[in-house]
Amino acid sequence: MKRFLKILKIVGIFIVAVLVIASAAIYFSGPRLPGAADETIDAALKSDLPELIKGQTGYVHPENTSVWYESIGPNTKAKGTILLFMGIANDALGWPQRFIDLLVDSGYQVIRYDYRGTGMSDWMPEWQQSPYSLSDLALDAKLILDALNIEKAHLLGLSMGGMVAQAFAIRFPKQVLTLTLMMSSGDILDKDIKGISKQTTIDLFKIALKYGIFPTEKNLIKLHIAARMILRGDADYRIDVKGTAEQVLYNLRKRNGYNPQVSRQHQAAVSRSGSRYEQLKQLKIPALVIHGQKDPFVPIDHSKKLASVLSDCRTKWFENMGHDIPPDLYDALVTELIKNFEQNPQ
Length: 346
Fold this sequence. Notes:
With 346 residues, the chain is of the alpha/beta class. The chain has two domains: 2-30; 39-341, Alpha/Beta hydrolase fold, catalytic domain (Rossmann fold, 3-Layer(aba) Sandwich). Helix content is 45%, strand content 13%.
């Protein structure tokens, strides 16, 4: 019996040691947050939140599912409509507010929506029994245009959102004026191109553990800031700590917060979509492909191949950009976008 107890004690000490080491590894993992980040976050926690929903909101209901959208228009007659598609596991508020404001101030109506599984849209608890595809997410956007009586729009998709925008253009080409794809892919599983960075995926998983085990408001803000820093890669630009804090708090306090299952849902939707290269070759739509040369997540070769299969396409590679929209490049990006929109104005 004494020997047995001694073995149990040794095993217990070993388990505790492993847990301590693992906890320490998680605690010290991830990037160091920007200087004064804690002070900025604390100020945001104590301050009144700015209103981030400024336009007309509503829902469409595909297949007994509720999908939320917002339409933001300029003060004058709109030059056209821009339909936004955000990246994986992000809701409509993932688009930086100042970036949205610049597009609206340029005279365009801007529509953004919460994908299934995010924000104010249905979170799809039965998604494994009834999985949805990128084409389904594109159909949701089509129904939003129909609800707003909009015949045609400029499509702007970021990362996975670029894949949804492609699915929209393939399925509803007559409703597309122009197509802009940022840091995206025509086939993320293309065996001829290096895939999504496994190391970046691991780094994102580590900070999810670090800040997500105790998901306080402050920790969730830090999680989003750290994720932006990881996706920035080797690019050198500031992270908008205040804007990120306000966006996270707005989601937590005034919307439905964040769905921990949505990343798996969207990954499954991407995996089921397959290659779009052959279908994209048939499109006759003015296109712009944008990518950051320091993207640590989706290799730029995906955008280069994507551009090569589009019949009417120009490219813009930003040297100091990772897998994110840098605040310092908002103006330059909007300039490039408008050039593309003017290829086929409404």
